[in-house]
């Protein structure tokens, strides 16, 4: 973490933590019940008006979080770069990829996207539906929730493979009735030096990408999205924990967004059953990941140089 943040008096950290905790808890209890109550009406009748209202309530909750970031984390500096070819809109339809280092990544995504992009959703496990409030909110807000089956289960019952794909297709198609941002963390898990070493990853700053989820989303939504967006997040002082972030121990966050051109051959391919297409798609994703890896190194070098100049 930044040296400036670490020098904060302990009393100030405690006060900040209590403030953040109290405001976020109060905001959740204020915004949560209306979302759940309106969501119950969808059991009887689907309504775009209800969906829009719930998104507005959720954005209000995110707005409170962003207010806390702007006013309670005074030392946090943002460095946000957006590709000039990337024309974002609150009415757009986007697929987004992002590197994954910390639970803070989602907060960074929400901070940037609240006034620039539709509500960000991501694939979640069906089992989360049983977590009180959280699981129900995911379902109500249209997060694609999937029942994933193991290879062993599919070998015993091959029909499960088709069922998984059909559930994923339905989950994605439900998003098409409204603007959306569908996020995919291609690494599948948070980056750590231990995981990086265990994988023997060919990338300096990233774990190996899992291309299947992106292939599925592009197969289902590819010709109806406005852009494939790649978000890169760098924490110059080290990836923070969620508590460290809200206690004000993060001094700088750098974000880069670029538009990824989708080759024509990508759309309409069968990733699951076409070996040639799968190999070509994986090579394409590997190329994107190599570019991303180089970008992260450049972003880190920028801050390393800045720190050296400041120390002189």
TrEMBL record:
Residues 94-236 form the Phospholipid/glycerol acyltransferase domain. It holds the Pfam family Acyltransferase. It comes from the Bacteria. Transmembrane segments: none annotated. One of its GO terms (molecular function) is acyltransferase activity. SMART domains: PlsC. InterPro entries: Plipid/glycerol_acylTrfase (IPR002123). This is Phospholipid/glycerol acyltransferase domain-containing protein.
């Amino acid at each position: 973490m930044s040296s400036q943040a670490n020098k904060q008096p302990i009393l100030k950290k405690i006060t900040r933590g209590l403030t953040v905790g109290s405001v976020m808890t109060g905001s959740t209890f204020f915004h949560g019940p209306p979302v759940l109550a309106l969501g119950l009406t969808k059991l009887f009748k689907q309504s775009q008006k209800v969906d829009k209202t719930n998104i507005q309530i959720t954005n209000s909750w995110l707005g409170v979080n962003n207010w806390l970031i702007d006013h309670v984390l005074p030392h946090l500096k943002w460095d946000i770069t957006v590709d000039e070819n990337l024309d974002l809109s609150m009415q757009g339809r986007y697929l987004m990829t992002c590197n994954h280092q910390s639970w803070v990544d989602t907060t960074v995504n929400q901070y940037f996207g609240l006034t620039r992009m539709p509500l960000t959703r991501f694939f979640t496990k069906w089992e989360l539906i049983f977590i009180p409030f959280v699981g129900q909110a995911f379902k109500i807000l249209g997060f694609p929730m999937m029942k994933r089956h193991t290879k062993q289960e599919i070998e015993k019952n091959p029909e499960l493979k088709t069922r998984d794909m059909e559930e994923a297709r339905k989950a994605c198609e439900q998003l098409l009735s409204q603007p959306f941002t569908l996020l995919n963390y291609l690494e599948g898990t948070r980056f750590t030096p231990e995981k990086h070493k265990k994988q023997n990853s060919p990338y300096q700053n990233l774990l190996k990408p899992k291309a299947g989820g992106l292939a599925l989303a592009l197969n289902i939504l590819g010709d109806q999205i406005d852009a494939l967006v790649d978000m890169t997040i760098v924490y110059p002082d080290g990836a923070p924990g969620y508590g460290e972030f809200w206690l004000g121990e993060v001094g700088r966050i750098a974000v880069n967004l670029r538009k990824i051109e989708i080759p024509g051959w990508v759309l309409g391919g069968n990733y699951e059953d076409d070996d040639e297409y799968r190999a070509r798609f994986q090579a394409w994703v590997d190329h994107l990941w190599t570019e991303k890896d180089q970008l992260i190194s450049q972003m880190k070098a920028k801050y390393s140089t800045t720190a050296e100049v400041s120390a002189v």
